[in-house]
Design a protein that fits this description.
Distance between the termini: 18 Å
Largest sheet: 4 strands, antiparallel
Strand order of the largest sheet: 1-8-3-6
Order of helices and strands: EEEEEEEEH
Structural class: mainly beta
Helix content: under 10%
Shape: elongated
Number of helices: 1
Radius of gyration: 18 Å
Number of strands: 8
Length: about 140
């Protein structure tokens, strides 16, 4: 098992009701993915933020509806951090975006970090099947 922790994206701000793409994740042989969002809310904000994952089997044509998401709870005037844990398909890719749910005020100091755990056990099993039974590997 290999674990990688990476800054996925940083934005100084996301406009009111805006959504920005912060990065893409290749799902090849991936077991789990965590996304940690940290952002600062305006003191007058009335709604939180949302992390959205969009799937593409070909890494080009992403779904228009989210595969998965999690919300960052509003704390007006404060910085908040939350981590979401996702099980992903063994192939394709995910586009990760952040949406500001507040219709009036921007979300600032936005940073998203990811941790990906690659699933190596499945590759080992595939290789053993090929050697023992002559099966094709994925």
């Amino acid at each position: 098992m290999a674990i990688n922790k990476n800054p996925l994206g940083i934005a100084s701000s996301i406009e009111a009701s805006g959504e920005i793409i912060l990065g893409d994740i290749v799902c090849e042989d991936m077991d789990t993915f965590t996304a940690s969002l940290r952002a600062t809310f305006d003191a007058s904000s009335t709604a939180g933020a949302r992390v959205l994952l969009y799937f593409a089997s070909d890494s080009i044509n992403y779904d228009t509806e989210a595969y998965a998401s999690f919300d960052l709870t509003l704390s007006a005037g404060n910085s908040v951090q939350k981590t979401g844990l996702f099980d992903l398909p063994q192939s394709g890719s995910m586009r990760v975006s952040v949406k500001n749910l507040d219709a009036t005020y921007p979300l600032t100091n936005v940073s998203l970090f990811s941790t990906q755990k690659r699933y190596l056990f499945g590759k080992i099993i595939d290789l053993l099947r090929k050697v023992i039974y002559g099966e094709k590997t994925k």
